[in-house]
Design brief:
By secondary structure, the protein is α/β, with parallel strands linked by helices. Helix content is 36%, strand content 16%. The chain is built from 15 helices and 15 strands. The strands form two sheets. Strands 3-2-1-4-5-6-14-15 form an eight-stranded mixed beta sheet, sandwiched between helices. The radius of gyration is 21 Å and the shape is globular.
C-alpha cells in the first residue's frame, strides 16, 4: 500500500502522523511511505530521519494526497485537505465529527473511507488510540490551569499548592476516566486540594485506592456541581461519550456562581466541550473570559508537547496502521471488530450512529459497509 503522511496544517499543531520508526516498520512490511517535506520537524524528526528509514520525501501536500492510498494524520483534515481526498482513499486520523458538521459533510461528499482514532476500541472497552493523548491532555490540564490562574494572565493569583499557612487551590475534576485520572495525578502532585466527580462507584473506589486518600471523590450530580463550583479555583472538564458530542454539564447560569478569576480547562473541547460557554481556542490565543471566569479550551492540547505526543500516539496506532496496510481496510476491519468500531465514514455514508444522532444525519451500521 502507498501510505502518505502530510504536514499538519491546523494552527500550532506540531505533531506528525507517522514517526520515522513507524515508517521503517511499514516499509519492512513491503509498503511505500511518502512524507511531505518538513512534516516531522515540529516533533523533532527531520526529513533525513525519514529518508534513512526508507521513506520518500515529497515537496507538497498535494503530491502526498494524490499519490497515497492511505493518508495518516493526527488532527482532523482541514478544509484544504478535505478537498484533496477522493473516493476509495483511506483516511486514518482523529476526526471528532460529532461537533463538526462541515467536516462531516465534506468527508461524505469526498467518498473517502475514514477511520477515526477516537472510536477504535479494545477488549476491555477502552479507547486505545485516544488514551495516550488523553493521558497527555490530562497531565497538561492542571499545568495550563495553573498558568491561567496567575494574576498576570487574568487569574485569581492563586498558587495551586499554596504555601505553609496558606491553603492550596481547590481543583474540581469532572470525570474520573483516563483524562481525569491523569489530571488528578498532576494536580495532587502540585499540592492542590482535588475533588473528582464521577458516576461510576467502582471507578471512584479505584481512585480512592490508587490515591490513598490524597483526593476526594464525589458522585457527580447537579447538586454536587452546584455545591462545589462556588468554591473551585480550577475546574477541569474531562467527560467523554465515545464518538458523541460532550454533554453540557455546567451552564452559563452556574458559571456566574464561580469566583472571579477562577479557571475552566475544557479537555472535552474536541467533542464540543462540557461547559455551555466553551468554544475552541488555539495555543497562540488559548484563553478568554466569560463572566469573570478564565476559559482554557485549546482543541489540540497535546500539540504543545509534540515530541512526547507523537511518539506516544505512534506506539498506539502502529499495529492498526500495519493491519490496514497489510490486509486492506475491509479485511482488517472484518477480522477485528475493535478496528471496525473506528469506521466513521465510507463511500458517502456515515457509519457511526452517535455522529449521526449528534448531527441529525442518517447512518448505517459499520458492518453493512463491509458488504
Amino acid at each position: 500500500m502507498k501510505i502518505g503522511c502530510p504536514k499538519e496544517i491546523k494552527p500550532q499543531e506540531f505533531r506528525v502522523g507517522l514517526t520515522p520508526q513507524a515508517a521503517r516498520e511499514a516499509i519492512a512490511h513491503g509498503h511505500e511511505v511518502m512524507v511531505e517535506t518538513g512534516a516531522g520537524l515540529g516533533a523533532g524528526f527531520p526529513d533525513a530521519d525519514y529518508t534513512a528509514a526508507g521513506a520518500r520525501i515529497l515537496a507538497t501536500a498535494e503530491e502526498v494526497f494524490a499519490a497515497a492510498e492511505m493518508i495518516v494524520k493526527v488532527k482532523e483534515p482541514q478544509p484544504a485537505e478535505r478537498a484533496r481526498l477522493r473516493r476509495g482513499q483511506l483516511l486514518f486520523t482523529y476526526l471528532h465529527l460529532a461537533p463538526d458538521p462541515d467536516q462531516t459533510r465534506d468527508l461524505l461528499a469526498s467518498g473517502v473511507t475514514a477511520i477515526a482514532y477516537e472510536t477504535v476500541t479494545d477488549r476491555a472497552g477502552g479507547l486505545p488510540l485516544l488514551a495516550p493523548m488523553s493521558e497527555v491532555a490530562g497531565r497538561l490540564a492542571p499545568q495550563m490551569g495553573a498558568w491561567a490562574l496567575q494574576k498576570a494572565n487574568g487569574g485569581r493569583g492563586v498558587l495551586l499548592g499554596g504555601v505553609p499557612g496558606v491553603r492550596p487551590a481547590n481543583v474540581m475534576i469532572i470525570g474520573g476516566g483516563v483524562v481525569g485520572t491523569a489530571a488528578a495525578r498532576v494536580a495532587v502532585g502540585m499540592g492542590a486540594n482535588v475533588t473528582v466527580l464521577d458516576r461510576s462507584v467502582p471507578r471512584m473506589s479505584w481512585l480512592d485506592d490508587i490515591f490513598q486518600g490524597r483526593l476526594t471523590t464525589q458522585y457527580s450530580s447537579a447538586a454536587a456541581l452546584a455545591d462545589l463550583l462556588p468554591e473551585a479555583d480550577m475546574v477541569i472538564g474531562a467527560v467523554l461519550i465515545p464518538g458523541a458530542a460532550a454533554p453540557k454539564l455546567v451552564s452559563r447560569a452556574q458559571l456566574s456562581t464561580m469566583k472571579p478569576g477562577s479557571v475552566i480547562v475544557d479537555v472535552a473541547i474536541d467533542q464540543g466541550g462540557c461547559f455551555e460557554t466553551s468554544h475552541a481556542t488555539t495555543h497562540a490565543d488559548p484563553i478568554y473570559t466569560v463572566d469573570g471566569v478564565i476559559h482554557y479550551c485549546v482543541a489540540n492540547m497535546p500539540g504543545a508537547v509534540a515530541r512526547t505526543s507523537t511518539m506516544a500516539l505512534g506506539n498506539a496506532t502502529l499495529p492498526f496502521l500495519l493491519a490496514l496496510a497489510d490486509k486492506g481496510w475491509k479485511r482488517a476491519c472484518a477480522e477485528d471488530p475493535h478496528l471496525l468500531a473506528g469506521l466513521n465514514v465510507h463511500a458517502g455514508q456515515l457509519t457511526y450512529a452517535a455522529v449521526g444522532e449528534a448531527l441529525g444525519l442518517p447512518s448505517i451500521p459499520s458492518a453493512q459497509a463491509l458488504a
